[in-house]
Amino acid sequence: MSSYTLRTAAMVLCMLGLGPWAARAEPGASAGAAVRTVGLPQPGRHSIMPEQLRRAVQRYLERELEGKVREVQVTLIEPQEPIATPSPRVNLEVIPGVQEEGLGRRLFRVRLSHRGRELETVEVLSDVAGYADVVVPSRLILTDEIINAEDLTLSRVKLIDLKQPFMTNPNDAIGKSAARPLQSQVPIRLASLKKPYAVRKGDRVTIEARSGGLFIQATGVTKSGGELGQSVTVVNSDSGKELRAKVVAPGVVHVEF
């Protein structure tokens, strides 16, 4: 290739910003000004890599979301190019913002400093995912079934937001009953559980009645189920009469008169 062709190619590359002189500072720029490079850093300079920014955001979120999620994952969107710095020892600090804590796409501001002197603030756009260990049934649990410890297990799931009412402690579900069918391996919501029935429809129960010093007991059959403290309809087995009675214990109802 002739020297003329080489000179022409070099001029074209320079015009496109691709030549070896493209990264030079603009005339009049101050000596201490922070320089943002595109592509590879300038020779003789140090750089902050995108992965370092991602890890800084990751550490910040692990503190911010402690106790709310079990695991945090950060996917960096921007920037994707290295950032030139005057020193290899640069401190990265996420600046707390006014934005509420949350998941999904978030913009963070990361301060770069060296020996207490701020060098630059970088905007870092990231996708934030949170994971939690939630309680799931190990089998299909039917409506009104009492939940036992062997019916439950923990499963790690990705959260849509931080306010999802999933149960995270199995002890909060043990002994309760299902308000609706609970599918296997599907996270249990708080609204899906209720106190277990102390009596069920068709149960034979003891009917108690007190008046002054008088105490009467009879046998009856419930026409509906109920929790402790609830009122149910009971049919007296001797008279066939329907009564409204309050559930006071498993298998025991009380009639006021």
Descriptive notes:
β11 (214-222) and β12 (231-236) form a beta hairpin. Helix content is 11%, strand content 37%. Mean pLDDT is 83; it is low at 1-44. It is mostly beta strands. The strands form four sheets. Strands 2, 4, 5, 6 and 7 form a five-stranded antiparallel β-sheet that branches.
Secondary structure tally, helices:
2
Shape: rod-shaped
Q: Segments where pLDDT lies below 50 for 5+ residues?
A: 1-44
Succession of helices and strands: HEHEEEEEEEEEEEEE
Structural class: mainly beta
Distance between the termini: 114 Å
Please report which band the strand proportion falls in: under 5%, 5-15%, 15-25%, 25-35%, 35-45% or over 45%: 35-45%
Q: Over all CA atoms, what is the radius of gyration?
A: 35 Å
Estimate the helix proportion, in percent.
10-25%
Averaging pLDDT over every residue, what do you get? 83
Strand and helix map with partners:
Layout: H1 3-15, E1 46-48, H2 50-64, E2 71-78, E3 83-85, E4 91-94, E5 104-114, E6 117-137, E7 152-158, E8 177-178, E9 193-194, E10 204-211, E11 214-222, E12 231-236, E13 242-249, E14 252-255
Parallel strand pairs: 10-14
Antiparallel strand pairs: 1-3, 2-6, 4-5, 5-6, 6-7, 8-9, 10-11, 11-12, 12-13, 13-14
